[in-house]
Amino acid sequence: MTPDFIQSELKTYKFNVKMTCSGCSGAVSRVLEKAKADGVTEYTVDLPTQEVVVKGTLPYDDVLARIKKTGKEVLSGETV
């Protein structure tokens, strides 16, 4: 069971990322998989909707920077 103080720090972010092929979504998946060591607990990368949802304790700006590092354009992002 997750302690309450950790649970309260979990955040969910939703990004609209310009991805045109499975290579694009794969690149985003790879950086988010590596980010699990730093606080990402789970993520989904949906190529048809170009939506990336990330859950974890990593700050929004850090997640955004990692996605941008792939070279993909982040059209929008929000905390949900």
From TrEMBL:
GO BP term (any one): copper ion transport
Protein's name according to its UniProt entry: HMA domain-containing protein
Family: Belongs to the ATX1 family.
Record keywords, A-Z: Chaperone, Copper, Copper transport, Ion transport, Metal-binding, Transport
Residue ranges constituting the HMA domain according to the UniProt record: 10-75
Gene3D superfamilies per the UniProt record, alphabetical: 3.30.70.100
Organism whose genome encodes this protein: Gymnopilus junonius
Taxonomy, superkingdom: Eukaryota
Residue stretches in coiled coil: none
GO cellular component entries: cytosol
Pfam families assigned: HMA
CDD domains assigned: HMA
Sample GO molecular function, one term: copper chaperone activity
